[in-house]
Structures are given as C-alpha cells and as structure tokens.
Amino acid sequence: MGSTSARLLTLLGLLQSRPDWSGAELAERLAVTGRTVRNDVARLRELGYPVSAVRGPGGRYRLGPGARMPPLLLDDAEAIAVAVGLRRTTATAGFEEPARSALTKLEQVMPDRLRRRLASIRDASTSGPENTDSNVEDPAVDPAVLAAVADAVRDHQGLRVDFRDQRLELEPYRLVAWQRRWFLVAREPRTGEWAPYRVDWLRLRTPGGRRFTPVPFPGDVTDFTVREVARAGWAVHARVTVDAPADEVLARINPAVGTVEALADGRCVLVTGGDSVEVVAVWIGMLGLDFHVDGPPGLVEHLRVLAVRYAGAVPVPVPVPVAVPGAGPVAAPGTPT
C-alpha cells in the first residue's frame, strides 16, 4: 500500500466497517505484514483512537468508544446511500430539519465526484407523496421524545406519561415503526396489561417512573402491534357487523386493517380504525360484502352521504319490455297506448 497516512486512514475505515478483525485479515486487506499492522494500530492509539487488542494467534482488533470521534470513512456507495436516506427522511414528519441539516453537512464534506453523483441522482429522479392512504397529515414525532423513550427501553426505566385522557405509569419494552408512525409497546405494571401506545400521543412527565426488571413479552411484538393498533391506535374506531363468516372476512383483509370476531349466527364483527371516517369507509367498502355500521356517528353519517353519492353516480337502468304470448305488440316505455 502507499503512504503511511493513507494506510492509517484505510485501517481506520476497516475497523469502522465491522466490530472485530483478526490481525491476519487486516494484513491481507492492507497488503502488509502483521508487524506493520501492529505498528499502525499503535499509531492510531497515539492519535487518540481507542483500538483494543486481544492477544493470541494472529491477534484481534476492535475500535471502541473514546473521547474523540474518529473521521467517518465511507466508500462511495455508502456515502450515496446515507445521503439518499437522509433526503427521504426530510419527508418524515418531525425529522425534517435535523435530516436537512445532516444532509447539508454531509454534502459539504463529500469529494467533488460524490457531490456530482448525488446531484445527478437528485436531478434525474423524483418521489411520489409518502402518504397516499389517508386524507390526514402524518403526525409529527418529537425526536427528543422518541430518543427519551428509546433510552427508557434500554435502561429498563419506567415512564410516567399522559396518554390522551389517561395518566399512566408504563414499563417500556420496544419501539415499533409502522404506517409512518411510531408505537411504544409497553406493560402497565398495575394491571399487567400490554398495549401499543402512539408516541405522538405520549406526553412524558418528570420525574420518570421506577426502574424495573423486564417481563418477557408474550409473543411477537410486531404482530401484536399491527393487531392491537386496530383497537386503540387510530383516531377513529368502528365495530362493523359483516354478513359473512369470519374465515371469509379474514381471507379478504390485510391483518393491518383490523381484527375479526366470529358471531354465533355465522356472521362476524370487524374491529377496524383509521385516521379519519373517510379512510375507514374505504377499507369497509373494499370487503365486497354486505355490512352494518352503528357507530361512531361521524362514520354513520359519512356512509349515508356515500350511499346517496354512489347511487347518483350511475344512470338508472331503463326496464326492457317483455313480450307476453297472445298479448299483442308491446309498446316501448313512454309510448301512448
């Protein structure tokens, strides 16, 4: 390899790219001897980069956390991937400004060839709207709240929160991102019940709750979130009675739409929800089955409006005259007899 400084930067980049390297692997990648690798590691330590080593055949090296942040060395594909990802994040409610600021800083330190490539990707492409399944704007999530919740999950620290009209103490378990929203899956120690809580609806209270010993979650946390959000995670909820067996309804819906409860008379109830009555009405209509809705009032009224609108959207069929044997000629509708 070329100069020592170039080799040190390459070595630093390798140590950043994965957690653990053997001395032999580093020597092969750098095309140097094991002794040179050891000398270069010593130089990185002198510069303040905390490279730890495990003695043994070939030795093993790891870049640990330290008092100073090493330069972030990305190859061309990695730098473009980060930049494109940040550009998409600028469309995420609550993260627009941090993502835009980080993208600006990244573009400033990019080599000219990468800035030109990123510019060509930007100028040659466009993106459709992120939110195409709702007539309600995506909720903004405070990055500070999201970070505080993630810290509480990591540290097994209880949370005291205001959630809509409730004041709760929660044991946070996992954050789940779904449908451009963040949900905290948590256990309420008072009742032992698990539930997903929309992070944009959480208001953290200080001081926080008590530290706790985590209770294992009973099942798959993602499946649980998708299923339970239909009951408690939307602005509008409805229980729809469907004139069909539960199995038929389950075969027609995505699990994200809601849950299905069988009834003794062979029908079932679809428990569903959405950000607005318009969204819920669309999902119900896509069933292709007869249904009955008793509430909420806003949804009932919207379905009445849709019924009139759809009925007026198609021409009324004209009855076709039917000839009766022995009755003589049949006059066309509207013809005097």
UniProtKB/TrEMBL annotation:
<dbReference type="InterPro" id="IPR001034">
    <property type="entry name" value="DeoR_HTH"/>
</dbReference>
<dbReference type="InterPro" id="IPR013196">
    <property type="entry name" value="HTH_11"/>
</dbReference>
<dbReference type="GO" id="GO:0003677">
    <property type="term" value="F:DNA binding"/>
</dbReference>
<keyword id="KW-0805">Transcription regulation</keyword>
<dbReference type="GO" id="GO:0003700">
    <property type="term" value="F:DNA-binding transcription factor activity"/>
</dbReference>
<dbReference type="Pfam" id="PF08279">
    <property type="entry name" value="HTH_11"/>
</dbReference>
<dbReference type="InterPro" id="IPR026881">
    <property type="entry name" value="WYL_dom"/>
</dbReference>
<dbReference type="InterPro" id="IPR036388">
    <property type="entry name" value="WH-like_DNA-bd_sf"/>
</dbReference>
<keyword id="KW-0238">DNA-binding</keyword>
<dbReference type="InterPro" id="IPR018356">
    <property type="entry name" value="Tscrpt_reg_HTH_DeoR_CS"/>
</dbReference>
<feature type="domain" description="HTH deoR-type">
    <location>
        <begin position="4"/>
        <end position="62"/>
    </location>
</feature>
<protein>
    <submittedName>
        <fullName>Putative DNA-binding transcriptional regulator YafY</fullName>
    </submittedName>
</protein>
<dbReference type="InterPro" id="IPR036390">
    <property type="entry name" value="WH_DNA-bd_sf"/>
</dbReference>
<dbReference type="InterPro" id="IPR051534">
    <property type="entry name" value="CBASS_pafABC_assoc_protein"/>
</dbReference>
<keyword id="KW-0804">Transcription</keyword>
<dbReference type="Pfam" id="PF13280">
    <property type="entry name" value="WYL"/>
</dbReference>
<dbReference type="InterPro" id="IPR057727">
    <property type="entry name" value="WCX_dom"/>
</dbReference>
<dbReference type="Pfam" id="PF25583">
    <property type="entry name" value="WCX"/>
</dbReference>
